[in-house]
Amino acid sequence: MDTNLAxxxxxxxxxxxxxxxxxxxLAVGGVACGSDDDDGATDAxxxxxxxxxxxxxxxxxxxxxxxxxxxxxxxxxxxxxxEAVEAAFMEGDESAIGAAVEAFTAAAPDEFRDAVDTAxxxxxxxxxxxxxxxxxxxxxxxxxxxxxxxxLVAVSATDYAYDDVPEAWEAGPTVVKLRNDGTxxxxxxxxxxxxxxxxxxxxxxxRSHEEGGPMTGVGAVDAMPGDTGSxxxxxxxxxxxxxxxxxxxxxPENLDAIQAGEAGGPPHFExxxxxxxxxx
Length: 280
Ligand SMILES: [Cu+2]
Known about the structure:
By secondary structure, the chain is α+β, with helices and mostly antiparallel strands. It has eight helices and eight strands. α3 (73-91) packs antiparallel against α4 and α5 packs antiparallel against α6 (131-145).
């Protein structure tokens, strides 16, 4: 599954169904990609919001929640099957991924059938990481967010900063959206800092690719200029860092040159495109 990733990093090892492949490859001077469509970009909220989806109940374990989405057992099973897919990708266990995807597809209620078939079909067709897959999977995540009672986090990006970053982050299944108001490709790669690590965020930033290092990749969301990307994060309590690893100069017109190693400056986080947050 990782054959198109150019370098071993904690993030690619925990590659997601969503946009992470594109993000990680581009981050190391990798792949060119086509322009995304604008679906979802215009209805993105202007301000960041977090939704405490399940009220006072812990959101990390839907199975233990008495506040079932819509009271619909089929829907709950579908949501949980999807979280199992995401978890399997996090673990990187190929056999677990296959079984989880199969169960997820089988659990899709009628209203999600087409969206699931489209996204999974692209993935099974080897197009995981393609702009078409990223768009289809993002639409599916967006459609599932409310019915599955997931938290919603929306952040915006410019060259080279994140805006509208929420102050409070809640643990649990989370849909994260990134709206790109800049001129370059941006992403937001999220890492959880190991418990007990007290190094400053500035010291930690360059260590994201460190094997067995102080940070573990949680997931990523990316967006071409003018677009809004969606991704899934299974957030657990603790200290986190979000950063952009995209090389400076990664405009849509310039991606080929960056891929060829003929362009591309230092990663955006060196311009200050990062933030630290705590999941409670
Ligand atoms: Cu960036």
